[in-house]
Structure formats: C-alpha cells, structure tokens
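agent> Task received from the user: take the single chain below, predict its 3D structure, and emit structure tokens. No templates, no multimer pairing.
agent> Plan: (1) validate residues, (2) run structure prediction, (3) serialize to tokens, (4) report one or two observations.
agent> Step 1 OK, no nonstandard residues flagged.
tool_call: predict_structure(input=
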Amino acid sequence: ARLVPKKGLVTLLEALHELASGGQDFSAVIAGPDPDARHAQMLHRAARGGAAHEKIHFAGWMDASEVQRHLEECAVYVQPSRPHAESGDTDGIPNALLEAMAAGAPIVATACGGIPEVVSDGVTGLLVDAGNASSLAQAIQQTLRNPSSARRRAAAARRIVEQRHSLRHTGERLAAALFAPEHAGSSPARP
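)
tool_result: status=success, residues=191
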C-alpha cells in the first residue's frame, strides 16, 4: 500500500502492537512507496513506539515478482483502509486486495469504500469496522489461529476474483457495454 492516510496503516500498526502485547507471534511486512514523506515518517515512529517494533518491516516499493512471492507465502493479507479524516478520500476496490485474493492469501479487511463488494465477512475474508484497531487485531489473530478456516475463505476469495475480475470477464463486460443494442448504428470512438 502507498504510505498514505486512507490506507489505514496507523490502525494496522496499533493492531500489531496489540497482538504483540498479547503474545501473538508474527512478522509483518508493509510494502509500498511513501509519496507522503511526513505521513511515512509518522508511520515509522508509530511502528517503533510499541510492542511489535521488532516484528514490523517496511519493505518500500517491491516489483511484481516480490509482491507475488509475499502474497503466496503470507498467513494473512490485511487491507486496513479507512476514509481520510480531512478529505474523506477512501479506497474503491484496491488492486492490491484483488491481487492478494487472486494469490490465495487469507484476507482481513475493513468495511470501507468498495472493499465489501469483494470481501464478504466470514465467506471470502474477515471484515471489521474501519479505524478499529482492536477488531482488526482480533480478526488477524482469528486468521492466524484457524488456518483451515482461513484457507477456505481464501479459496472462496480466489473464486470471486476469477469469476468477477479476471481479464476475460472484464473484457466481456466491456465489449457488451460498447456493443450494446443502444450503440448499434453509431460508430465506435477512435483514439
């Protein structure tokens, strides 16, 4: 995730500190560029300021193969999005979330923006309220402690991506929209 406020990484860090304080073993990788230097610095300070400070690694930008490797190996992918407090800007359906679902990673996410369109609580992942670090920590812990349930949700999530968000499916929908009867007789727009 880009290290920007709407990605909710502050909430994730709070959740990770809560998990570490409770004795949960984990290693967290936060990958993504930091276009907002002040926010990124605040996140780094927040990571160092709690029980999980040795368990959190900011990896920065990763190429596609590195991202894929991490998604295939992770025990849980967390999408902690929340509306930006000042602007109200929020995620639609984050591409990284769809990539994680396609890779078969167990999902924990917030019910924010377009996320509930692809993550159904208890079916394709676990959903919690945006900005609620304790609920996020509980959902992460539930995923880590119940790997068979997490794998079932991950398989269902992968099927959703294959059915609704594959290149073939979106291409067919685009073609249907472009060549619908109401467009018959009109010339397609040229680039």
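agent> Step 4: summary for the user.
The CA atoms of residues 143 and 149 lie 8 Å apart.
agent> Done.
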